[in-house]
Amino acid sequence: MLPNIRMLFLGGNRFTGAIPHSISNASKLEWLDFSLNFFTGSIPVNLGNLKNLKKLNFGVNNLGTRKADDLSFLNSLVNCTYLEVVAFGNNSLSGMLPTSVANLSTHLYSLYMGANRISGSIPTEYAVTGEVSTSGDVYSFGIVLLEMFTGRRPIDDMFTERLSLHNFAKAAIPDQVIKIVEPTILEEALQVQDGSSNHQRLKPNWKSQIHEILVSILRVGVLSSAESPSDRIQIKEVIKELQDIRKIILAMGL
């Protein structure tokens, strides 16, 4: 793995097979997102080697062996002292939550694990309907997506009962998107553009292209995180939107 990579976002593709254990070699990773794919098997138990990890999202895959130790990967995450978000909802993970969950990072404010085979408490949304639904996990994905691209958390002081992260992002689309996007993402885009072999082709309108991509990504986050489950887009729509965004990025030559 690339040792200096900080953000690895591979959500909304059609990747299959097991998540490689070698991912732990990317020691500087802060954001890791493999959501909305078709990964199977166990979640690597050496993720604790990613000491700088802040956000981890494996939601909406086919992960799990239906054995009691499916959640053993959580034990290693105790070593990730900067961890803020852990999402692995809508998989086939089984077993009891390990007691190590209580020792996860003191920075942790979001733990998404609905629609699995885990013994323990049931998310409120599922309890109300009496049925397992993926809408709660679409919501989780949307919030994590907004967190990643704005660099803000739902519990930040700026958010109140009247202003949520969802509403904050929604109000910025489309004209104010650049102002709310996490600065490091824009820096990465600048570095890629400046070092691209397609520099001359991208130069005339690359800023508008980047803006279009960011608007599309934040729109997916907003549509996924609507307050009412009935107002949220379906997982298959999320996947399609992300695949369309990926095509735009590839067409740009980035």
TrEMBL record:
It holds the Pfam family PK_Tyr_Ser-Thr. Residues 123-163 form the Serine-threonine/tyrosine-protein kinase catalytic domain. Coiled coil: none annotated. It is a single-pass type I membrane protein. GO terms for molecular function: protein kinase activity. It is found in: Membrane. GO terms for cellular component: membrane. InterPro entries: Kinase-like_dom_sf, Leu-rich_rpt, LRR_dom_sf, Plant_RL_S/T_kinase, Ser-Thr/Tyr_kinase_cat_dom. This is Serine-threonine/tyrosine-protein kinase catalytic domain-containing protein.
